[in-house]
Amino acid sequence: MDRAKSHTHRATPAARKPPRFVLAAAVLLPCLAAADTPANLRTNASPAKPARRLVLECERDLVAAKRLIPSLEHLPPDARRFRKLEFTRTPQGPLFLDLYLLASALGRLPLMVWIHGGGWHTSPTARDDYLPGRMVGRGYALASIDYRDSKTARFPAQVQDCKAAVRWLRAHAEQYGIDPERVGVWGISAGGHLAAFLGLSGGEKEFEGDGGNAEFSSRVRAACDFCGPTDLFQLEAPETTNALAALRQMAEDFVGGKLEDRRDVVAKVNPATHVDPGDPPLLILHGDADPLIALKQSELLYQALKDAGVEVTLGVAKGGSHLFVGPEIDRTVDAFFDRHLKVRRPARRQRRRQPVRVRQPAC
What we know:
alpha/beta
C-alpha cells in the first residue's frame, strides 16, 4: 500500500511511503524520512526514541474515583465556552465541536483535541462524555469533536472527520488564540483508536477526506490512546461471550461488513499498519482488568511502535477496568503532553504579555 505523509502544518506534496514489507529498511534509514522536514517540526530523529512500559496505580475507592472521573465540572470558573461550532458538512449532516479556553490566557495556547468513545457511535451528548475539563486549567485550549456514527458512515469517515476538525482548528487558530504548531490528540475507547490513528497517519491523503481547509495539515505532535482497540481480528472479551458479540457487532458496523469479508479494510483500520519512524510520540494507557477491550490490543500497538523506533509509553493501570482514574494516571498524562506541547520559557526576563482577545464567531 502506497502512502504519503506530510510533515508541515500546511499541506504540501509528500514523498511516497515504502510498503510495509520494507518498513525495516526505513527504520535503518531515518535520515531519508526526515530529509524534507523542518527541524522544528521533526518528531522522531535518529537514534530511535525510547519505549517504556509502566505499571500505574488507579483509584480503587469508588467515592474518590467518582470525583476524579473527567467531566465538564472540572472546567475552571473563568473558562470561556464556545459550544456547537460547525467544522464541516458531510452527506450525513453537519459536524460540530466545542472549544474551551481560559479567559485569562497569556499568549497562544497549545491545543488538546478530545475524541469521545462509544464504539464509533455517537449521540447528542457524546462531546461531553468524560471530557478532561481540568486540562483547560492547566493552560490548554480544549476541543471536543464530533464524528459520524458508524451506523450511517463506515470507516474511514470517522478518521476523515477527526482530521477535518484538526484542520478547522488550525484555520481558526488566530481567532481563538491557539498555537497551530502545538496540537495534541487524546481519546478513550473507540476515541482512543481514532487518536492513535491520527497520530500515526499524518498526511496520508486517503484519510484526509474533503472536509474543508485542505491547505492546513491534520498532523499532530503527540497522541494519547486510552484503551482503544487496534487489531479487530484479535478482539477478546475476558468476561462474557455477550461482550465479545457486542464488540464484533461494533467492529462490523465500523468496517461495513463481516470482518472475514473485509480483511483489507480491517488491516487499514489497525493503527499499527500506519507506523513509521517519523511518527509523533504516543502514550497508551490500558487497564489490566478491562472487561471489554483486552490489554493485548494496546500491547500489540506498543510493540509495533517499539519495533519501528517511535517514542512510546505503555502505562498499564493495575486493576483498571475499561474506565480508570487516579492521581498517577493524571500525572502521567500531564507529563506527557507538557513535555511535547508546552514551550519552556527562556531564562531571560520577558516583557509581560497581554491576554489574547478571542473574537466572537460570526453568527
